User: Fold this.
Amino acid sequence: MKSSSNPALAAAFINFIHDPQRNARIAGFVHYATPNLAAQRYLSPAYFQNPIIYPGEDTLRNSEFFTPMAPSAAKLRNEIFQTLLQ
Assistant:
């Protein structure tokens, strides 16, 4: 919002997507976990049992995570990935 040419519209959009019912619909559509605790009550119990959305401890223990890096390093990584995908 800070660099937006229309901060009021940016704030309105953020408020729009964070509405609990709307956010639950978005999470259900994209099949992503939502950090919006108020939205979670609008999601079915089956949603929270989906191991693709909420992986179990064994899966997480054997997963790899990107760690924060300098913007120049992130740019280089993205360039490498883009080269590999071509």
